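Table S2 (continued). Query chain:
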Amino acid sequence: MNTSMIAMLIRKDVHFFHRIVAGYIVFGLLAIALASIPGATFFRAGGVLLVTTLVTLGMHLPVVTVLGESRNQTLAFLMSLPITPAEYTWSKLAFNLLSYFGVWSLLLFASIAAVHLQGHLPRGLIPFLLIVFGGCAANAVLVLTAALVRDSLDKTIRAVVFWNVVLQGTVYSAATNRAIHASMQGGAVVWSADVFGFLLAELVLIVAGLGATLWLRSRKTQFI
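Corresponding output:
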């Protein structure tokens, strides 16, 4: 595997798209600040903005880094380089996953810190918060899978719609789950079997998406 060429492609994406990533960090931190203001209205508005930030980032990066190269003829230039489809896939996975999960980790840490520092936010929210963040992460990985495997804007948009519906269903199911809902307003963090069930399902989706991407792309011998 040509690791130097993979590193070069990653640096290219960092150069062109680092401002996009920085913008989402700003929006995410603003959302957390809004949710930290006392009052149910601020909490809900900040929560919606935070989820929207994570979901949109998970859609935006694959569109500009994977599908955008096919549309603006960058892929034609890449085909002239000494790189295989598998190495191209690794570079796209590396940049997208490092960028997304870098932002994801920062915002998760900031959200948990906000819960601990703000006396009006119950610590019982933390397991539910992790389920929401896990759902957003699974959503982002599966959209990236669709972009890399299908290489079609239309099919990727369909994947975005489908997985966003699944995410909404997951959040609703977790919020209305009896065990999780009962502990959300408490002062202690409760790790119930239902919480672990949601987190495990999200982890399985992430691993399955990455595995499917690597397997299907490894079978390609040409870029197009």
